[in-house]
């Protein structure tokens, strides 16, 4: 939904019933967009509904308001549209998580700028009451600016971690919990003082809460490790929605309130789903994240243990002999862009009478639904893709568990090792399959949680050490 809910301007008092009806219609289309985006099969239709809703919201605003310079606004829309179109055409699917984080940062920054514009020129936004801004409006304004600033700075850190511009490991500051709680308390106090202060005394208060909100956004995301990034992405999406909703109340804009509330609530629900998938509480994610302890200690050395290494020809022979194969993709597949080769391998196996299914963990990849999108891009049929709770019981009947680029989501330490940072997270029972193929670049790397994986060393596991795309292509050639 991104910047859409900030594009529509204030609708004033909303006296005109046609304006209210138009904003209501845009809200309905946004609801239909969210419903469509809930499934890969209907995602294109959902995107179209979102575009229609945005067109109605922007068009209604431009038609019903006195615009100082419509040409400048048209040029700005054109430039923004061209930038968005260019990015959408060129961006790789592996870069989608950091793109989403970058867009969230823009949403947050837009909320901050709108809030400051309303503060500096309240008359233009219809906020003047008896020569000043009402206390209620100042609370809404302060909350919108604070949430927007947190969204901006937090999204910048998320973007840097997802894009590899900074380490994905948890960066732990001394007394971080005390610092974070103190900063949040200071923001709340400054917001309250801002609401009660006389007009001449408000500037240092709103400036102070803005600066502190930018700071706390950085502080909240820096200590979160890469394994919790799916939760972070959905959490920041929720923040951006609440920031827009707060600005909507300030500006009296129905479209912003409706759409901001939709984005905020859907992001919060998605965050809950992600946390439940990892058997973790939202607070525990914000407090540190997977890998925090390992990062603090510099990471434990990986024990050198014997393992079996195989070739593409070995894997091809055993796959052809199998009756049932379950493929578990992870972020490594995305990095190697191996989804198309994997689809080709699936087609070859099915032609030979092998049943092939895909198992998707809710937190696989770097954002919710990352693997589903990649498989959809490669035209893998939706009826072959299953979530953890729907397919986990089938590994005991599978001849082959084919792991490509996944790690933490198949680590049995989550079930057996109480000292592991991923203990309690539901994982795939790949150890119950008759044979396990594990594609990995090398034995030196570990998952985002920073822990070794016992699956590497199981008797039925054969490690296929290579680039994921190259290995799958070689397997396909060996099956011809």
UniProtKB/TrEMBL annotation:
Subcellular localization(s) per the UniProt record: Cell inner membrane
Record-annotated NADP transhydrogenase beta-like domain positions: 20-477
Reactions catalysed, as given in the entry: NAD(+) + NADPH + H(+)(in) = NADH + NADP(+) + H(+)(out)
Keywords, ordered alphabetically: Cell inner membrane, Cell membrane, Membrane, NAD, NADP, Translocase, Transmembrane, Transmembrane helix
EC number: 7.1.1.1
Transmembrane segments: 20-37, 49-67, 73-92, 99-119, 139-160, 181-199, 205-224, 255-275
Subunit structure: Complex of an alpha and a beta chain; in Rhodospirillum, the alpha chain seems to be made of two subunits.
Pfam family, one: PNTB
Signal peptide (UniProt feature, chain positions): none
Organism: Aurantiacibacter atlanticus
Function per UniProt: The transhydrogenation between NADH and NADP is coupled to respiration and ATP hydrolysis and functions as a proton pump across the membrane.
Family: Belongs to the PNT beta subunit family.
Family annotation (Gene3D superfamilies): TPP-binding domain
Topology in membrane: Multi-pass membrane protein
Protein name: NAD(P) transhydrogenase subunit beta
EC class (word): translocase
One of the record's GO cellular component terms: plasma membrane
